[in-house]
């Protein structure tokens, strides 16, 4: 269960957050990534990769990035959505790490109606990350449960009165932005708590 007290966040606080330069800058970077993603071969476009890695703070070795951007391009070309748990398995087999955050960022790039599994968002929503003491399989299962909880939380919050208020405030500040409701809420949370 997600224990997030959205009522504790005043309208004035959200309005102030929406005025922050960091949100405008983040929105510009995000829009660039989402537009460029559709136009270039992300498996070979170094400029796109640099912008993506900077925005999402991807600090991994060349082998990881090569596989990551290759898979991102493959799914884009197939016009298919990967499965979160399968991508976790793929990267675990190759690198022996469960890359939940980066996998979620891949999914959210392919389809922006998916949320990001990010330690800051987890902290904001008061979700504990799974222990590294768990077996890899148990940890993966817990990560998948948490990701399903995130999806449910966004799907419940967005149509709520509070979610509608947040989206209206965002849309009033950035009226011509064509990003998903999930990303708008994500950006507000990122600025409020980042």
Secondary structure: elements and pairs:
Layout: H1 11-19, H2 21-39, H3 46-56, H4 62-78, H5 84-95, H6 100-110, H7 119-124, H8 136-157, H9 161-173, H10 181-193
Structure description:
26% of the residues are buried. This protein is 69% helix and 0% strand. The chain contains ten helices and no strands. The mean pLDDT is 89. With 194 residues, the protein is mainly alpha-helical. The chain has one domain (9-193). Helix 1 runs parallel beside helix 9. The longest helix has 22 residues, at 136-157. The chain has helices spanning 11-19, 21-39, 46-56, 62-78, 84-95, 100-110, 119-124, 136-157, 161-173, 181-193.
Index terms:
69% helix, mainly alpha
Q: In what range is the share of β-strand residues?
A: under 5%
Mean pLDDT: 89
Classify the secondary structure makeup into a structural class.
Answer: mainly alpha
Radius of gyration, in angstroms, nearest whole number: 17 Å
Helical content stands at: 55-70%
What string gives the helices and strands in order? HHHHHHHHHH
Low-confidence segments, given as residue ranges, are: none
Shape: globular
Characterize the largest beta sheet: strand count, sense, and whether it forms a barrel.
none
Can you count the beta strands?
0
Tally of helical segments: 10
Query: How many domains, in number, for the residues?
Result: 1
Q: What distance separates the N and C termini? A: 22 Å
């Amino acid at each position: 269960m997600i224990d997030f007290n959205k009522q504790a966040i005043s309208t004035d606080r959200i309005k102030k957050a929406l005025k922050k330069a960091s949100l405008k800058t983040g929105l510009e970077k995000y829009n660039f990534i989402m537009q460029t993603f559709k136009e270039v071969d992300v498996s070979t476009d170094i400029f796109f990769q640099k912008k993506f890695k900077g925005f999402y703070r991807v600090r991994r070795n060349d082998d990881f990035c090569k596989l990551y951007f290759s898979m991102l391009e493959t799914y884009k070309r197939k016009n298919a959505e990967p499965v979160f748990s399968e991508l976790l398995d793929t990267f675990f087999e190759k690198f022996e790490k469960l890359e939940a955050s980066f996998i979620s960022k891949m999914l959210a790039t392919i389809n922006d109606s998916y949320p990001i599994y990010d330690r800051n968002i987890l902290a904001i929503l008061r979700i504990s990350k799974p222990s590294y003491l768990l077996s890899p399989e148990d940890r993966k299962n817990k990560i998948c449960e948490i990701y399903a909880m995130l999806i449910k939380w966004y799907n419940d919050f967005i149509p709520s009165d509070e979610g509608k208020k947040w989206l209206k405030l965002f849309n009033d500040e950035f009226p011509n932005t064509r990003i998903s409701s999930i990303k708008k809420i994500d950006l507000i949370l990122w600025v409020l708590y980042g």
